[in-house]
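User: Please predict structures.

Assistant: First:
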Amino acid sequence: MNIDLKGKNALVCGSTKGIGFAIAQRFALLGANVTMLARNGDLLQRIVRDLHTEEGQKHDYLVADFSKPEQVKAAIEEKINAHYSYQILVNNSGGPAPGTIMSAREEEFITAFNSHLLSSHYLVQGVVNSMKQGGYGRIINIISTSVKIPLKGLGVSNTIRGAVASWSKTLATELAPLGITVNNILPGATATDRLKQIIEGKSVKQNESIDVVSEEMLAEIPMNRFAQPAEIAYAASFLASEYAAYITGINIPVDGGRTGCL
């Protein structure tokens, strides 16, 4: 199977680091023109130049803060109004801070809803017409295995990720007649800053060393290791390709077998 994204324009969110950056890199290597979207304009300007261009790709970036959906909406509308079209959209944003659901403040839910659901919704609304007109559409949401089994100590994340998964499934049904697919990737524990934050938080709460907490988490994973961001990017690349044209409305865990259900 030779995945080729040449001639495709891809918008990859949260792409300055971690999973988002790995996806942007992989898509560029497969020939896509990549637009990176994140809130740090200076960093975007630096790293977009490092993306692969040997097939003549042209990469660019958009600056917006996902906690402020109106910024995201304005950014994508400006791009589309300039007659730029997208065939691939990857919704990805940093997860809410760890913590129990009983200790969560109201504003934490609102911020997470804005960052993960409303911003993603604005992006889909912005790109869907160009996907329809071009006869090719792939919407990929990076969520969490918590949509299958809630994760302890991630109360706000569990709640909002579940909402995004239901939104995605509804969207997949509505867009299927247009040939546009909508799927979710559910990363397990992945070697990113987010995982480091979770481990450090558990270390403080449990009064255990970071090494001990890491070993406890690894013990829950049958493959006995954390995922690399590139491994999530491989799954995204398949879903973005022509080979996934008949796959829509599903959740794909990439978690080393940790999730305890089918």
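Second:
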Amino acid sequence: MTRRAGELVQWNNKGGYGFVRDDAGHDFYVHISKVYGGVRPRIGDRLTFEIAAGRKGRPSAVDVRVTQAVRSPASTLQKVLGSKSPSVSRYKLGLRVAAATTITLLILLAISSEHAPLWLSMLYVCMGLASALLYRFDKIYAMANRWRVSEANLHVVDLSFGIIGGLCAQEFYRHKTVKPRFVATTWAIALFHTLLLAALAFGWLEVILPV
């Protein structure tokens, strides 16, 4: 059986399937189970493969081997740290830094006025770092076409006192700043923490949360 060469033009990483286009311009279905060594290919990878009858008798790629990967981990990380999204203005991104700064100042005010315990600041620091790391890994995974951190998990960590790190990571990595639903939820979480900390700073929650 003659082997063919081509390029992976579509890939669903979650489902583990996609399409490879041979050098003659024909597309063939490929499943992760048919990729040699269980390696997950990326869009743009050069592949060699054979053709066999798949589901419903349609020709599919089998014995698929990656001959040339499109990216290396080093270049992916460089793109993550240096990339900028042209569709998001710096003004909008600057609002995230402003929100994170406002929340930080409210924490300091609440603690200095003895309306909040010191451990609250440590909680925001620890969860903020955790949130920032999750955004960083999710951006790297997105660039490498690998498994992603779910949006629900990102929101849960942000809500659980990680919002400062989440906002800063969104701006620094230019990540999760376009999708309307995700952006709206992020700002709702930021507003919740801003109001909560403002109430603490001005003593309105002293009875509910004694120091």
